[in-house]
Every structure is written in C-alpha cells, then in structure tokens.
Amino acid sequence: MSPYQNLRNSPVFADLCRVSARLGRDPLQVQGPGGNASLKDDAAMLVKASGTWLADAETQDIMVPVDLARLREALRTGDPKADNGAAFVPEGENPRGLRPSIETSVHAIFDWPVVLHTHCVATIATALRADAGQVVAERLADLGAAFVPYTKPGLALAQAIDAAADPGTRVLVLGNHGLAAGAETAEEAERLVREVVGRLTPAVCGQEPGTPDLPQSLGDHGWRTFDHGPTTALAFDPEVLGRLRGGSFYPDHVIFLGPGVFVADVEEPAEAALARAAAEPRQNLVVFPGRGVAMPADASPAMQAMARCLGDVAQRLDPEAALTRLTAEDEAELLNWDAEKYRQTLDRSPAAGT
Ligand SMILES: [Zn+2]
Global pTM? Predict the structure, then answer.
C-alpha cells in the first residue's frame, strides 16, 4: 500500500476531514476556498487541493498527495519549484488531476502531523496591526505562538516560517494573512484554533449596521446591494472606512475583490462609481458612504464570502491600533502569480463551490 493510502486509512485522517468541514462551514474561520489542512508522516503528505472548499472535506475528496521528502529538499535548497506544490504530486496518485494548495509549502515546513490553516477573522484583525508581533507575544506566548511578518504564500513564506518558528511552535500568526495550528491530532489543532479565537476576539465587536439605501438602477448595470450587517456597517462608519480605504490587508481580499477597498465619492452618482470599479484592476465590492455596499449581481460565492469577511474583520479592529497594509508590490505579486490565476479561474468555472 502506498504511503498516501496509509495516511488516508488512518483514524487521524477521518478526524481531520471532520474538523476541516466544521471549520470550513464557519465563516469566521474560512471564507470560500481559503484555508487548508494537511496530514503528514515523515515522507508523505496529504494537503487540500487548490480551489476546493474545506467545507466539502467530508463529502468530497479534496486532498492531494505530495511527496514531502522531495518538497522539503526543494525548500531547503530554495528551489523555485517549491513555490507551489504542483511539481511534487506523485505520478499515478492524483486521478482527479487536482493541484495542491498554493500554501502547501507552509504545511511542509510546519513540522506537525496535522496542520490547520484558517483565515480566522479574529486573527486577521490582529495580524494586520502594526504591533501584531507584540500582541501575539503578550496574549499567545504560552500556546507556543510565533508571529511571521507578511510574506507572499509559497516558498518565501515557508522560509519566513522556518526563521520564526522553533520545534515548540504550535501556533503561527501570519502577518496580514491568518492562522496556522499544528498538533498530533486534528482535535488538538482545532482546540488551539478555538483558544486563539477566544484570546484575540475583542469583548465588544464593532459597529451597528445601517439600512442600505442604494438605487434600484444598480441592477441595470449588473450590480446589486450586498447586505451583510458588519459589511454594510462600513458604509455608515466614516472612521472605520477611513482606516480601511486606500489599501488591502490580506491576500484573498485582493484575489477575490480586487486590490484596495473601493469607496465611491460621497456625491458621486452610482453609475459613475460602478463604471470606475469596472475598470482594471476590476473591483468586486463598492462601498457607497452613507448608502450601502454593492457587488456584481453574478458575484461568486467566494467573492461574497470575502465581502462578509471584510466587515467581520473590521468589527474586530482595535480602534487605537495602527494598521499594516499590503504594498502595491504585494498586491501585484499576488495578482500576477500563476497559482492565484488558477484559483481565480476555478472560482469562475461552473463547478466552483461544488
Ligand atoms: Zn492562507
């Protein structure tokens, strides 16, 4: 039996699928195809396939085998192939032709049998603070937590994790990105995720949502009102909107909604703002101050999940904290990365979300 089949037959794998599906159904942990999970032994790894949804972990085979020994050697030598896991899928072990997650190298370098990686909104709201490293040290040190400043997912992020972590590190707070937890079992890794959430969620969350008041004519332009309380609230809170506009804060926002937070001018007619948003790089979320939030009428489930995420993160921001934005170079690096173009293509395909 192949080492990959051994992993699939292990009781830990069944537990991992159950925990993955549970986290995947929680929009405060996972949005759309974001987040991933893995199981490994010394030389073999199963990792979530790119573009698949953790929520489907119990009903579909979303895991891809990866030759861990070869990938680790590539990471050690800085081989550019390690930037995504595609070159390390063993022949004959991948009948569906799936690609491993773009974050496969994170799973390879974080040396625990089970690794869960989520885009936990409470963690993101901390991880985009300029003082995130200090907050992690103060609140999570006894969990074995390390803070890793923002680095593009792939080879560079794996190298940054390697530099920041030691063998006792069980929790990674990834700057402007999310959370990873490593453990012997899926239950223990999930327990760490929940513990981090408890420690990073503020006692009082965010703003009161307003009532959207956008013209019906949005529909004539292929747009519609998007109403998720915390996201709608952005339109009615000039202070928070002022902090968010003019930048983006984490990779999946850039991939699914476009770079930055697009805000219409206060007096700008809706049609004019939507025409601006449709220009390249395209924006899939438009905030109309005092009026509401709009998305394309055909926005994919992943785009909608990311629109909810923005409001959920904003609700958890410390009002006093300075924030770190992705740079224009960071955004361009994500948008021009073939591995991310593949995920965007999957999101636009009819099978997306299934
Ligand atoms: Zn991620």
Answer: 0.93
